[in-house]
Design a protein that fits this description.
The complex is a heterodimer of chains A (389) and B (388). With 389 residues, chain A is α/β, with parallel strands linked by helices. Chain A contains 14 helices and 16 strands. In chain A, the strands form 3 sheets. Chain A has a 7-stranded parallel sheet, with helices on both faces. Chain A has a 5-stranded parallel sheet with strand order 2-1-3-4-5. In chain A, strands 14-15-13-16 form a 4-stranded antiparallel sheet, sandwiched between helices. In chain A, helix 1 packs parallel to helix 12. Chain B contains 13 helices and 16 strands. In chain B, strands 8-7-6-9-10-11-12 form a 7-stranded parallel sheet, with helices on both faces. The chains are: A alpha/beta (389), B alpha/beta (388). Chains A and B meet through helix 3, helix 4, helix 5, helix 11 and helix 12 of A and helix 3, helix 4, helix 5 and helix 11 of B.
Chain lengths: 389, 388
């Protein structure tokens, strides 16, 4: 039984699932797999026996990815597990930006002791009135798990929806309401949308993708929603646009000294994935990723190695090799197996940037020395044999 | 040229919709029709010229309906024109009840000057965490214009939806998502729903329908939403249920001395229809009602007379007769018309409670004396001749 260490508390449902398959490790040192949420692992020593780290959540800034790759540790995350939780926040954000529900509720609390508050409310309410979202145009930038759900929700609430995603996958394309209009140029979203929401990962290319120039192209009175990552938006430019009245509302889940001071911003305290369901989904997904990898060598949703899946193990053993993506690796594996009089029945290989994953299913009399020989090859991070059932 | 007087500020798209046969007037005594929003008309006396009052909105508590009926003044409202506005507030209400978004915003506002607000937020956020709507059960009581939209929105957000409406109309039945499950007993809603929202008018029959017994029958941690009328909920029982923690949240659009004192109630100051779109829709709908009534005698969405529609004018004279809903009146009308040697081409009559309305397309004209004699028939309030 593989030993798993939890760096953060996980839900009881998660614990029950996890320890049906695995046993608890005494410490990180002792662990073959790790479950983590937001605990910072950058300063941790990673033991040689550690095979995998599963992050219950999307962001992996808390995990030393390069170090994991060099040691042949597969790091997983759980994209999409919190998608509905974030989607519901985005809908709430649009509605709170359209009508000043928050301000009106504050007004009621301030006037709670007024004897004829009902009559006073009828007079006061005009200042909190606003618009509806039905009939407005929503621009969704990034149509992954979250963006696709947001786009569909916009449609079902009667909005016109424009979607932009140059890397749109078949899976999410298929899930999209057919009335979501795909635009080829993100500028169409800036010039047409009344509400703009971004759902892309934060990287060097997407940093400040909502910058001064992009905001300048937007319609006056636009509402911008950011439930993805704060660095996607140039916050100084946003502060200026709000002050000038060009952007009506900036709705963001990222509290920092800049957003907290913006006039006209609605700032929540990173609540996008803060639901029981999202936590349960993340834990369940992380556990199933660990189970597949540890017991069958299959990789889905890794952030440092390519995804491979040969299904359940059908032969006596399966070999998992994590290696550099350099020429002749597969040739070397196959030579070693041939030398040991073993045949390759099934194989899958997937590269990801500089590294690659290879799964091999073999037949013939097993010889332990093949794992040692493969592991000793230059460029191989780790080789592991999983017995079939 | 018909003259319309606006008592409240009516959206321009509405007055524009009246069309070329209409002009606005500042002189109410001279007006054929009044457009009104919430102004109180109970103390107002109506001139004999006045034919119609259109309320841009749903509630007509501000209008003396019976007095109008007896003067042959048709009172219209605009049901459904604000339905989407209310629906969106109900969705917001459910989302604000599911996760403490208001609390999260408050927290950020209180810590806005802290240089570590981002790191602190990560620690504080658990307090504002909650649940999702998808997968939960929503009970909708009343499936009219608003309730039907709310039920469909619940479905599209991944909820299981139970709908209750003993008076469900074909129109709204048709508009409902087929996965909304129709229940015949409110007990099924009390027993199964995680969210319960009411969309029924306030009448003697519905007053206090969310009663102590009803609340006791609900699931623990239920969320109750009231964007209809405060009188529908027994507020004292609700306050106690919130205090005990049986009801997790009471979301209401009615601020009053009870609701503002309730723990874990989120109260808004009657914002349900406070959107530009709802105001525009109400004004356009009110204008269309006035126009079709003044030009053609057709009545739709009246609250004191029945709905009657003979389409556009097809003969040179259309006769509209307002009368008491008693035997013999229709006989008197037809006798007077045939006595004048004129044939009835089309006729329709609709009663509503004590009052009834007859609309007749006639093959020829009637002289003033005949119309005058009809007006004096016992039980007839008003006779209106509409000429092409």
């Amino acid at each position: 039984m593989y030993k798993v260490h939890c760096m953060n508390r996980i839900s009881q449902a998660g614990v029950n699932q996890l320890f049906g398959t695995f046993s608890p490790a005494q410490s990180l040192e002792d662990a073959e797999a790790v479950m983590v949420r937001s605990a910072n692992m950058h300063e941790e020593t990673l033991p040689d026996g550690l095979l995998a780290i599963a992050r219950a959540g999307a962001g992996v800034n808390n995990i030393p990815l390069d170090r994991c790759t060099e040691k042949g540790i597969v790091v997983f995350n759980t994209p999409g597990a919190n998608a509905n939780g974030v989607k519901e926040m985005v809908i709430a954000g649009m509605l709170l930006a359209s009508r000043d529900i928050i301000g009106s509720n504050e007004w009621v609390r301030e006037h709670a002791e007024e004897p004829d508050i009902a009559a006073a409310a009828e007079k006061a309410k005009a200042q909190f009135g606003g618009g509806e979202i039905a009939g407005k145009t929503l621009g969704v930038i990034g149509l992954g798990a979250i963006g696709a759900m947001v786009a569909n929700a916009g449609r079902s609430l009667g909005m016109h929806v424009l979607g932009y995603d140059p890397y749109l996958s078949v899976k999410y394309a298929w899930s999209l309401d057919r009335h979501v209009h795909a635009v080829q140029n993100v500028g169409e979203i800036f010039s047409q949308a009344d509400f703009i929401t971004i759902h892309v990962p934060a990287n060097d290319k997407t940093r400040h993708m909502i910058g001064r120039d992009q905001i300048a192209q937007m319609k006056r009175g636009v509402v911008v929603l950011n439930y993805a990552r704060d660095i996607l938006v140039d916050e100084n430019a946003m502060t200026d646009a709000l002050a000038a009245g060009h952007v009506a509302r900036y709705v963001t889940d990222f509290a920092n000294p800049t957003t907290a001071h913006m006039k006209g911003a609605i700032v929540t305290s990173h609540l996008g994935a803060s639901t029981v369901e999202a936590e349960d989904n993340c834990a369940a997904m992380a556990i199933s990723e660990l189970r597949e990898y540890l017991l069958a060598g299959n990789i889905t949703n890794s952030v440092n190695f390519g995804n491979v899946d040969l299904g359940p193990i059908e032969t006596d053993e399966r070999i998992v090799v994590l290696h550099r993506n350099v020429p002749n690796m597969i040739g070397s594996f196959s030579q070693i197996l041939t030398d040991a009089h073993m045949n390759i029945e099934n194989m899958a290989n997937k590269r990801r940037g500089e590294v690659a994953t290879t799964l091999l299913e073999t037949s013939g009399l097993w010889n332990d020395s093949v794992i040692d020989r493969i592991a000793a090859l230059e460029g191989v991070f780790r080789a592991r044999m999983i017995p079939g059932h | 040229m018909y003259k319309v007087h606006c008592i409240n500020n009516i959206a321009k798209v509405g007055t524009d919709a009246l069309g070329e046969n209409f002009a606005l007037t500042d002189d109410v005594a001279n007006a054929d029709a009044i457009m009104v929003r919430s102004a109180n008309l109970h103390e107002m006396s109506f001139s004999p010229n006045l034919l119609a009052i259109a309320r841009a909105g749903a509630g007509v508590n501000n209008i003396p309906l019976d007095r109008c009926a007896e003067q042959g003044i048709v009172v219209f409202n605009t049901p459904g024109a604000n339905a989407n506005g209310v629906k969106e507030l109900v969705i917001a209400g459910m989302l604000l009840a599911a996760r403490d978004i208001c609390g999260g915003i408050d927290w950020v506002e209180r810590h806005y000057d802290d240089p570590n607000v981002g790191t602190l937020a990560e620690k504080a956020k658990n307090r504002y965490a909650g649940t999702e709507l998808a997968g939960k059960t929503l009970g909708v009581i009343g499936l009219g214009a608003i309730g039907a939209m709310v039920a469909n929105a619940g479905r599209s957000l991944g909820m299981h939806v139970l709908g209750y409406d003993p008076y469900l109309s074909v129109k709204y039945a048709w508009s409902l998502d087929r996965h909304v499950r129709h229940v015949n007993d409110l007990k099924e809603i009390w027993a199964n729903a995680d969210y319960i929202t009411v969309h029924v008018p306030a009448t003697d029959a519905t007053k206090g329908m969310i009663s102590r017994e009803a609340i006791a029958a609900m699931k623990d941690d239920v969320v109750v939403l009231n964007y209809a009328r405060d009188a529908l909920v027994d507020e004292r029982a609700m306050a106690e249920a919130l205090q005990e923690g049986h009801v997790a949240r009471y979301m209401t659009d009615f601020a009053n001395s009870n609701s503002t004192q309730m723990p874990r109630a989120i109260v808004t100051p009657h914002l349900g229809a406070s959107t530009k779109e709802a105001e525009d829709n109400c004004a356009v709908m009110a204008a269309n009602e006035i126009r079709d009534y003044l030009e053609n005698g057709n009545i739709e969405n009246s609250v004191n007379y029945g709905a009657v529609n003979l389409g556009p004018m097809s003969t040179s004279l259309r006769l509209a007769v307002f009368h008491k809903n008693v035997p013999g009146v229709i006989g008197a009308i037809t006798a007077a018309v045939s006595g004048a040697g004129v044939n009835i081409e089309n006729m329709t009559d609709k009663s509503r409670g004590d009052y009834a309305y007859s609309l007749l397309d006639l093959s020829g004209d009637l002289d003033d004396a005949t119309i005058e004699s009809l007006t004096s028939v016992n039980g007839i309030y008003r006779v209106r001749a509409i000429r092409k």
